[in-house]
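chain below, 205 aa
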Amino acid sequence: MQLIDLAGLRSWAERHSLTWSGEYPRGPLFGPNPIQFAWPWPRPQGWTRSWWLADFIIAAVQTSALHDPGGWYIWPNDGRWREIGNTTDYQVRNAILAGLGIPLGFEGAAHFETTEVAALAAAVFARCFMMDDSVGTVDDHVYVFPDHGRLGLYFVDEELTWVLAATREPLEQFNQEFIGLGWGWLRDESRNDLAFPGALEDGVV
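prediction:
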């Protein structure tokens, strides 16, 4: 894992034709109106099983690579690894991130190589999935950008993970491969306690 400062991530974004927002939330953007598609968390019993969630995060991250071996950037909302609260869930989150080498207060991204996918998944889990839709805030959300820059994942605490891109092709490729890995059942409302069913109806199929 390597820490990347704001200037470093901005340079990467500009080389990959992503725009850069200088205002909150700062960071790489797929233009003013990105194409997006939502995948719900695996919650078939109304709550998230931690082992399925680990499978889900790793599968989503690996699929987002689109067979490119470059690794991934993880970027907290606004680029700031804040210490938001002092409750036990935040204490555990901060301990996991510190153990991965991401210090509290750092501004920038962390880059994980393809051999570090489990560590990246741990960072995503600690940053976002330690929370839920009644505890977490927008400051807990986190982006994962594959090094190829053709799409990104936006993990939020409201039971959905968004796939973002500037064009339809990489989203369609992601969705097809993710379904091929056995995750198509997440789109079946009868098997998942989905909070926002409309998010699946308007996206890329």
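The chain has one domain: 2-9+33-199. The chain has a mean pLDDT of 87.
thats it, cya
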